[in-house]
Amino acid sequence: MAQAEFSLPSSPFKARVPSRLRLPGWFVLLLRNPKSRLGLLMVAFVIVVALIAPLISVSDPNGFSLLDARQAPSWHHLFGTTDQGSDIFSQVVVGARRSLLLGAAAGALATAVAAILGITAAYTGGIVDEVVNFLANVFLTIPPIPLLVVMSGYLKTRGLWTMVVVIAAVLWAFEARILRGQALSLKSRDFILASKAAGESTPRIVFGELMPNMISRIAAAFVLVFYIALLVDSGLEFLGLGDMGATSWGVTIYWAQVNSTVLQGEWWPFLFPSLALSFTVLGLVLLLAGIDELSNPRLRTEGRPRRHLLALLGGRALARAGGRA
Amino acid sequence: MSGAAPAGAPVLPKGGAETLLELRGLAVEYGTGEGAVRAVDGVDLEIRSGEIVGLAGESGCGKSTVANAAMQILRRPAAIAAGSVVFQGEDLVGRREEELRRYRWRNVSMVFQSAMNALNPVMRVGDQFVDMMRAHERISKRHALAEAGELLELVGIDPSRIRAYPHELSGGMRQRVIIAMALALQPELVILDEPTTALDVVVQREILQQVQQLQRERGFAVLFITHDLSLLLEVAHRIAIMYAGEIVERAPAAQLASSPQHPYTKGLLRSFPPLSGPKERLSGIPGAPPDLASPPPGCRFHPRCSNCSPQDEALYRRQTTERPVLREIGPEHSVACHLVERDGVT
What we know:
The structure holds 2 protein chains of 2 kinds. By secondary structure, chain A is mostly helical. Chain A is 67% helix and 0% strand. Chain A has helices spanning 23-32, 34-51, 53-56, 88-124, 126-141, 144-154, 160-187, 190-197, 202-210, 215-238, 249-258, 268-295, 309-313, 316-324. In chain A, helix 2 packs across helix 4. The longest helix of chain A has 37 residues, at 88-124. The radius of gyration of chain A is 24 Å and the shape is globular. Chain B has an 8-stranded mixed beta sheet, sandwiched between helices. Chain B has a 4-stranded antiparallel beta sheet with strand order 2-1-4-5, covered by helices on one side. In chain B, a hairpin with a 6-residue loop joins strand 1 and strand 2. Chain B is globular, with a radius of gyration of 21 Å. In chain B, 45% of the residues are buried. The interface between A and B is large, with 38 and 50 residues.
């Protein structure tokens, strides 16, 4: 056993060990992949716009001015104006706040519930699995729109958080089924049995062993719910059950539809909020490409992770030149 | 823990070594009620500290199920139907999950069959060591990683590979990593479940020698499960032969090689060529292992046994209706066979 004595401080390999949990590790990985780097920049751009919205919006997004109504995009009204004369640029910029918050919160809530319940059910099996499956089936058979209508009708407040809870309640079951299925196939792999044999506790196996293998699918679930949440936001406005006083991309699209603007040759009230929505979702989808690498190390390109932010943002050529060294 | 034992032939540990793990009448069933399949039916096996016990048999005879039962990691629908698993005098069957969790790996660790699947593909090797160690002791991450590096070095892998992901290692390296993990907490018993089946012969030999050397240095006991009896004859002190969920013969390795008693053992020994000596025709064993959902009555081996024919009526009736039990026929040598019971040791 003489060789089992080791001198800790002098171990040469120890210093280079990066931790799985240290923040820069995964962040660097996202930045190294060109697709997810672009996605990250797009999402970051939208978030920054939402944050500084009051500074860059030129007028009250719900301002009413017949003199300014139905104007095509111009330098004065960058995205044109609505039938009521509200500035669409301001609506899109200010609406980003509510839309992002709604999508992210609904996505996070639905995905968290789905992941925790789905994976735990798959791993534990037995009565827990039965109960979760039953709940998921019940929620899957309830048609979402009528449920939303009923819930919105009974709830006194129709604010953002009500909407978040309603959307998450409708969508979690779908994701839980998918994640449960994936966890079921993973659970029969030897490494899960091995970690049980190694004396790891059940929560540790579920969250430390199974979940890291499923990050990619979980992230995809988040993006899907994000997207659906924004569409549902618009859909509820159609039914007159939304929060009319709020400003969001969904509300702007709703009014564009109500006033049948496209029929009258006004394309801008539709185009710009829709573009903002597409831009955000596209950014998230691109981000998924990098997240795939997180949950599947095989996809990662060779070379040491680079930690210099500017070099990473400097584009492919720079990163490649450095990465090969 | 000096490596004083001479290399080469396995040496039995000193007599009177304490019993580490004992399986008493262990029976494991898959499913319950009518459709239950008894994959392991009344297995008695004793492993003493510091010895290498081999468990051999065909695929599907219940070897791995025995290992999983010993670790208490049977998965539904498998469950222990009868018998006990006694570790250092304490029965583990029916213990609370938290007690079992602490027992696993700390006292008995296991090397799984497929190195490919036994490591989590999304985690660095070092982190898997850390997780495992932290499940059992309060240890800083740094310290755990340093220890993981030492363990890797012990099995001949560069310590810097703790940063590697499993897919960056070869099959042999992965199996070594798993062996290193199994030794991390210095358990009293290491179960090797077909540890080298997926590897080529050269790597297989290297790894086995390494295991033997580590076993001599550190003195842990080994339960070595394999379908390859020739391998066991080289490494094991004692060998148990399993057939259709039962142990049919149990003997010290040398004795099993020189005077096997059970027809099944003889068949197994004839199914691989000796490296020296005159050429012999390999005979193998005709037929296929029985369906455990409806095992044959009497001796489970009788449909394939060359010593079982209706000519000898009294014996035939016993062979086809009465289950033989393990009987001691010499020091440490037991066999479950009607023929041996009647005719004595050959």
